Amino acid sequence: MMHVLSVQQFKDKALLDKLFKRAAELQAMSPDLYPKILQHKTIATIFYEPSTRTRLSFEAAIQNLGASLISTENAGQFSSAAKGETIEDSTRTINAYADGIVMRHPEVGSVARAAEVSDVPVINAGDGAGEHPTQALLDMYSIRQGKGGFDGLTIAMVGDLMNGRTIHSLLPLLSLYKVNLALISPESLALQQNYLTDLDKAGINYRVINDWSDALAVVDVLYMTRVQKERFVNEADYNKVKNDFILTMEQVKQMKKDAIILHPLPRVNEIDTAVDADSRAYYFKQVKNGLFMRMALLDYVYSEK
Ligand code: CP
C-alpha cells in the first residue's frame, strides 16, 4: 500500500518515464477504452482549501478508471473539522467508507499526518506552502511533451518562489536532469535557502535574480506562478509585490519562438490574457495533462503491492 506525499518518492528517472509513458497512453486512448482498474473501489476527495483543477481532475480520473467517488469540497467548513474533529479522526472515519483519499489541507505536513493513521492510500493534493507532488508530475509531463525532454533546457521560475508549493515540488524532480534554472522573484518572495542547498548538492546551474529582462530571451520553459495571497499575514505586503512580474505580449515577443509558457494556475493577473492566443502559451494544455497524469498515478498506486 502506497501513499503519495512528496516528490521525493518520485526522484527516479525510470519511475518518471514509466508514469509519463502511461499518461501518454491514456491521453491517446479513446475514453471508452479507459481501463476500469478501480472498479468496485470508492475514492474520497477531501479538500480543506479551494481547488478547481486538482480536485476536478482527480474526480474525473477516479471515475474514468471505474471507481465511485465521495467528496467534501469545502471540508474546513462542511466536514466535522468545523466541529473540532482532528484530521486523524476524520481520516480513520473516511477509511470506513473509502479505498483511497485525495486530500488538500492548508497546513504543511497535515496530509502526512492523515497518512500515518490511514490503512488506505492517501494522496497529497497540496499541503499549505509545503508540497504539491501531483502538480509537479503533471508539470514534468508537460515539459517533456512540449520540449521533448529535460537535459539542456533553460527553465525560468517566476513569481512567488517562497510560498509556491508547485515550485517546491517541481525543483527536486527537475534536479534529476541537466537543466539550467533562473529563479526570478521579488526579493521578499525568494526561494528558501534549503532548496538552493539541494540544487547545489544536485550540481544544478542556477541564478537567483529579481529582474527578468535578460532571462526571457534564453529560456526554453517559462514557469509563471501566482503570488500566493492566502499565505500573507499582511495585505499591504502582498500589495507591494503582487504586480512585480506580469507577462504581457511585450515580454513574450522577446522569448524564443519554440519556448513554452507554463503556469500551474489559477492565474490572477500575472499572465495577460492576450498571451493565451500565442503558440507558446502551454498552460491550458498543462491543465488537460493533469487529468492523464492523475489517471496514470492512480493506476500506479493501485497496481503496486
Ligand atoms: N494548480 C492547482 O493546484 O490548481 P487548483 O488550486 O485549482 O487545484
Describe, in plain words, how this protein is organized in 3D.
This protein has 305 residues and is α/β, with parallel strands linked by helices. It is built from 11 helices and 9 strands. It has helices at 13-28, 53-64, 75-78, 87-95, 110-116, 133-147, 165-174, 193-201, 235-241, 249-252, 283-303, and strands at 42-47, 68-72, 100-105, 122-127, 154-158, 180-184, 205-209, 221-224, 260-262. The chain has a 5-stranded parallel β-sheet with strand order 7-6-5-8-9, with helices on one face. Strands 2-1-3-4 form a 4-stranded parallel β-sheet, sandwiched between helices. Helix 4 (87-95) packs across helix 5 (110-116), helix 6 crosses helix 7 (165-174) and helix 6 packs across helix 11 (283-303). The model has no long low-confidence stretch (mean pLDDT 96). Phosphoric acid mono(formamide)ester is lined by residues 51-54, 126, 132, 135, 264-266.
